[in-house]
Design goal:
alpha/beta; Rossmann fold; Helicase, Ruva Protein, domain 3; Zinc Finger, Delta Prime, domain 3; 4 domains; two-stranded parallel ribbon; 19 helices; 50% helix; nucleotide-binding; ATP binding; ATP-binding; AAA+_ATPase
């Protein structure tokens, strides 16, 4: 059985690696490690098909060390023992351990002493954020390098190499790749070189030659052969949370087009639950008191989206996102409650004043509970000055109103008037 094109085109040296020049370019960290033959264990993390396995293979090819590949999820501790025995017999072995975030404790405990001795140089590959998903014991013994998504130019370079290479690639086939088909091959796979190469091979080997003997790879052929890859990673993956983060930060930054872009990614992933939750949070956290009606409309839009579902849910969601982007912003509410929580968590804030304590039980009056409480509705304007905070923190002020929008400017004016009246500086103005 023929190995897939992506496997056959795997780099043999660092010079053949496409992309990742921040790691393997001349003078960069992995390049220097290989040049000095001072390899240390490392963890490579990034999206699928961006070169993690290629870098490991190139390191092995450049150093001439034995190279073995295992999967932390599917291979057993016995498989690790085989690699360890080989390392004892022949010297250093480079072990590419795919899905390293799935490494269980038994395998980890077996590996650790071999990593310490240097007999096994571990190159862990993962799509998950290692600072979150990988055990600290492994993480502390490896350098962590992020593998970046490949650019369109880099994917195009790899495709051209595969088309020309007669030994490992498709160079022996009479292929003609149309320009628009090449563009589709690059863009549809979204930087996943493995998908691009394997899609190219499927198209090449499943298309019959034309009457002139040429195999024409047209746009329609490529579209049928390449599965379009979403920008959004698995809903439990690191990339998914990056998109959610970018979504909120774009709305907070009032960039309507960026916010719609990230909303579209989440819609393409079908993740209405995350969109709904995040949009409500954004409305209250980032717009808040600057524009309460916009907050209410965002909540209504989320409820409508949840009721009608996709694809129509995109319409109320887009309405809400655009309005929130263009709305005045204020985070004064979240700042206020966080300041109050900080005070509570510090402790030592004092007791509830006696006049505010519960007085609805027999004997409360003897204890002085609620005796001097002033019922605001008994006073003009339904307000009367009295102390509500504990004595120890009676001058605390948590809410710091902003002036971003008509509503919060009005709230700010009322807040300051009430605060001044409460402290006996002037009566409130209604």
């Amino acid at each position: 059985m023929m190995e897939p094109l992506a496997f056959r085109m795997r780099p043999r040296t660092l010079d053949e690696v496409v992309g990742q020049q921040h790691l393997i370019g001349p003078g960069k960290i992995i390049w220097r490690m290989v040049e000095a033959r001072m390899l240390s264990s490392m963890i490579l993390y990034g999206p699928p098909g961006t070169g993690k396995t290629s870098i490991a293979s190139a390191i092995a090819g450049s150093t001439k060390y034995a190279f073995r590949t295992l999967n932390a999820a599917t291979d057993s501790k016995k498989d690790l023992q085989v690699v360890a025995e080989e390392a004892k017999m022949s010297g250093t072995v480079i072990l590419l351990l795919d899905e390293i975030h799935r490494l269980d404790k038994a395998k980890q405990d077996f590996l650790l002493p071999h990593l310490e001795s240097g007999r096994i140089v571990l190159i862990g590959a993962t799509t998950e954020n290692p600072y979150i998903a990988i055990n600290p014991a492994i993480r502390s013994r490896a350098q962590i390098f992020e593998v970046k998504p490949l650019t369109a130019a880099e994917v195009g370079l790899a495709i051209d190499r595969a088309l020309k290479d007669p030994q490992r690639g498709l160079g022996k086939l009479p292929l003609v790749l149309d320009d628009d088909a090449r563009t589709q091959l690059i863009t549809a796979t979204n930087g996943d070189l493995r998908s691009a190469l394997n899609g190219l091979e499927l198209a090449a080997r499943s298309t019959a030659p034309a009457s002139d003997g040429q195999i024409y790879l047209t746009l329609s052929v490529i579209e049928e052969s390449v599965q379009k890859r979403s920008l959004v990673a698995d809903k439990d993956g690191d990339g998914h949370y990056d998109v959610i983060s970018a979504f909120q930060k774009s709305i907070r930054g009032s960039d309507t087009d960026a916010a719609l872009h990230y909303l579209a990614q989440l819609i393409a992933a079908g993740d209405l639950v995350s969109i709904a939750r995040r949009l409500v949070v954004i409305a209250y956290e980032d717009i808040g008191l600057a524009n309460p009606p916009a907050v209410e409309r965002a909540v209504t839009a989320v409820q409508a989206a949840e009721r009608i579902g996709f694809p129509e849910a995109r319409i109320p969601l887009a309405n809400a996102v655009i309005e929130l982007c263009l709305s005045p912003k204020s985070n004064s509410a979240i700042d206020a409650i966080d300041a109050a929580l900080a005070r509570v968590n510090q402790g030592n804030s004092g007791a509830v004043p006696d006049h505010l304590k519960d007085a609805h039980y027999q004997g409360a009056q003897k204890l002085g509970r609620g005796v001097t409480y002033r019922y605001p509705h008994d006073y003009p304007e339904d307000w009367v000055a009295q102390q509500y905070l504990p004595d120890r923190i009676k001058n605390d002020q948590y809410y710091q109103p902003k002036q971003n929008g008509t509503f919060e400017r009005a709230f700010a004016k009322q807040y300051r008037q009430l605060l001044a009246a409460q402290r006996g500086q002037q009566p409130p103005q209604r």
